[in-house]
Records
---
Amino acid sequence: GAVVSQHPSWVICKSGTSVKIECRSLDFQATTMFWYRQFPKQSLMLMATSNEGSKATYEQGVEKDKFLINHASLTLSTLTVTSAHPEDSSFYICSASRLLAGDTGELFFGEGSRLTVL
Amino acid sequence: GQNIDQPTEMTATEGAIVQINCTYQTSGFNGLFWYQQHAGEAPTFLSYNVLDGLEEKGRFSSFLSRSKGYSYLLLKELQMKDSASYLCAVKDSNYQLIWGAGTKLIIKP
């Protein structure tokens, strides 16, 4: 159990276009999902915390108008990179925790989405 | 500030044992996680420690000393597929996960 699916796995787009990445919890309800960005040879950087039915909480330095996050249901969160530029090229990963008795609070990660902006 | 330190890279031989250390300085402590991340893939959960001591899970073990702000991940009987980055993460007093930069483990035959 505790499967998180992310789509698309790979996306190449032209500079100035927008890209939407979907993150779904397949077998559990996730009231909170997390969006991370990871540049090559670097660790995970938390971008924002996505709460179902409310506005996302963005980390310092992350532009909320550029990285639009929507968490409309308990199983789906989306990240839209608006007006993408080459410097936005990165590996974007979503995650969720499952709040069941006995759980450690570990995060279950999606497969990640590699964005390349030309 | 909050800080997690782990070696950038380690090399070990197939069949051997390797210990990856992690030291942390965080505002509060609500558990320490180890994740494995293969290149180009998302992290996968390995272990969780919230009390002092050793947690063993097959070939992998994780140790925690809260008084020293220290943990290690021990990998036994190394296999080539263990070549990956190992991420240490601490949950602070606000239950926020603070991530280390990861240790790239290279296994040689």
---
Amino acid sequence: DQQVKQNSPSLSVQEGRISILNCDYTNSMFDYFLWYKKYPAEGPTFLISISSIKDKNEDGRFTVFLNKSAKHLSLHIVPSQPGDSAVYFCAAGVNNAGNMLTFGGGTRLMVKP
Amino acid sequence: NAGVMQNPRHLVRRRGQEARLRCSPMKGHSHVYWYRQLPEEGLKFMVYLQKENIIDESGMPKERFSAEFPKEGPSILRIQQVVRGDSAAYFCASSPYSVWSADTQYFGPGTRLTVL
């Protein structure tokens, strides 16, 4: 029972273009969403989050969009850089302190110079 | 402010041995979480602890796995009588206490357990 799904295992984009990573969830109790970036042999690094009271959150080159009715969120990276090449995980949680996160399976992003 | 620390980074055990994985949360963080990542998969929640208390262990296998977060010292994830299927990357995360909002979890570098 996968409550958080990232349907694209990989994505390849050209440097300077936009990268769009998608995530779908099924549990309507989730009200807090995060994106993590992971390099090989390292732990996930927090990128950006969004609460369900918002539909957009922006931080520099990274923007997360949330569509609650569709239970869908996406991460936009503009412009993409070769250093962005990594595995990106979407995660979801419930807005109380100390709740576990449920992760998607990850999308491997490759940004070509 | 040091990040979440985990040791060892790599651990090799033979079937039937015990594995002990340690996690020191970020300074000021009182919540610790353990996740497991099998090859080519996402991270799966195992257990959530606060000092001296297990809050949620719904993701822990029923046998051979245990976790603690003592009053002093790091959190320990213990796997007894390891089997090959336990080979995975084990990540620890920590977050600060907050009544008002969900807190971002910050991850350590992980311990890669290999069972021969």
---
Amino acid sequence: EAGVVQSPRYKIIEKKQPVAFWCNPISGHNTLYWYRQNLGQGPELLIRYENEEAVDDSQLPKDRFSAERLKGVDSTLKIQPAELGDSAVYLCASSPPRGGAKNIQYFGAGTRLSVL
Amino acid sequence: AQSVSQHNHHVILSEAASLELGCNYSYGGTVNLFWYVQYPGQHLQLLLKYFSGDPLVKGIKGFEAEFIKSKFSFNLRKPSVQWSDTAEYFCAVNDGGSTLGRLYFGRGTQLTVWP
């Protein structure tokens, strides 16, 4: 079974440029999460989707960050414009729909963003 | 909001030494507790979890953790580490409140095991 797939793995951009990250969750997982992990820190949630609905986006900086999950499967996270402080690893995770296993999140390899 | 504290940022051990990594959380209600591991160049993987029941949980690769509710702790242990245990270890908590589904992570502990 394929895990959570993210692309690209690495991205280097200049500040004020836009950037987008893509995530394909594990098949059958209806919950999708985007986390940001700053250097030396643990991941912090940006947004959580249940199917195509964003149910927890309180930590998403909405002035420059946006996300979508139009068909309830794959998702895109966008930053426009990027700032130096956005340099981080952006992680996608997914979890299955039912029971105790719903609380287990499976992570992708992440996209390491460097803003110059 | 939850906060998760991992007290050791970097632990260095020799093979066969015993390991204990501390984790404390702040939420006083019902919680789900996790330890994730990230091996060099790899993604975060679940090491073990606690949802309910026996507070001593066993995970993969000989790791175990003990949930002590009165101390808000979920420490990770392994009696004898191996070189292949070199990795970063993250404690995470998921509470049952309004932020159900959100994992709160500690800042991680880098474990280096010398052969």
